[in-house]
Amino acid sequence: MNNVAVRNIDRAEQKTVVALGELGVATVHEAQGRTGLLQPYMRPIYAGARIGGSAITVLLHPGDNWMLHVAVELARPGDIIVATVSAANSDGMFGDLLATSFRARGVIGLVIDAGCRDVKDLTEMRFPVWSRAVSAKGTVKATVGSVNVPIVCAGMLIAPGDTIVADDDGVVVVSRRNADQVLASSQKRLANEEQKRARLAAGELGLDLYKMREPLAKAGLVYYDRLSDVKE
Q1: Per-residue pLDDT of the chain in tens (232 residues, 90 and over written 9)
Q2: How far apart are CA 72 and CA 56, in angstroms?
Q3: Do the beta carbons of residue 56 and residue 71 sit within 8 Å?
Q4: Greatest CA separation found in the chain?
Q5: Burial class (CB in 10 A: 0-12, 13-18, 19+), 232
């Protein structure tokens, strides 16, 4: 594919995207069949951030952040920039100046399979970033990439307009076409978890709640009152 920047993309309904973000990564990941999770090395630069937004996808090249400047022009309020690199790289592609530009355009966060720097400033700004690494090493602007094309970021295929959910547990992608269905499944799962939480808080054991005793017995687990009673 030639180097391209696509201006217009389809997105899921904003209310659906926001609702998925509020539910969080673990719930969404489980609700869509334990799929869509980016590699666990993608970590937030500070604790407590939780966002959901539509992906503006970016293909970068090692040591070059040029296309991040292109991406922010094409973003809408509520979007998340999702960037990958054509070869493994941990250079500090993003810092507080770009974050200032992103925020002014309504971008709510960055997911980047490369490095990030100015972490103290970004934390004080409360601008959330999930990155492969933290590195003070700077970048150049010399090699053209692409914006709003399908990319593979931290092991997951992400299309422009897909929904991204990110929090302390990592990052998960939901296909734009499946967003409504995944939201319904996530809400159902959350309601079920609330019931289980109440029962566990009341003292019920998971062994009984999840009906584990019979399967454990069939798998060979034997209870003894004392270690001395155990037969070799």
Answers
A1: 689 999 999 999 999 999 999 999 999 999 999 999 999 999 999 999 999 999 999 999 999 999 999 999 999 999 999 999 999 999 999 999 999 999 999 999 999 999 999 999 999 999 999 999 999 999 999 999 999 999 999 999 999 999 999 999 999 999 999 999 999 999 999 999 999 999 999 999 999 999 999 999 999 999 999 999 998 7
A2: 9
A3: yes
A4: 74
A5: exposed
The tokens for 93 are: 């592609």
119-137 burial by CB neighbour count: b if 16+ within 10 A, else e? beebbeeebbbbbbbebee
Nearest to 50 by CA among 75, 77, 29, 20: 20
Q: Please name which of 87, 42, 52 lies closest in space to residue 165, comparing C-alpha atoms.
A: 52
Q: What does the block give as tokens for 198?
A: 């109440």
Cα 9 from Cα 162, distance rounded (Å): 10
Q: Which residue has the tokens 């990958």?
A: 84
Element (H, E) at 97: helix 96-104
How many Å is the Cα radius of gyration of the chain?
22
Q: What amino acid is encoded at 173 in this protein?
A: V
Entry pTM: 0.93
Phi, psi (degrees; rounded to nearest 5) at 206: -60, -30
List Cα–Cα distances, 192 to 12, 42, 83, in angstroms.
Answer: 25, 29, 35
How far from chain centre, in Å, is Cα 36?
Answer: 9
Token pair for 78: 């509520």
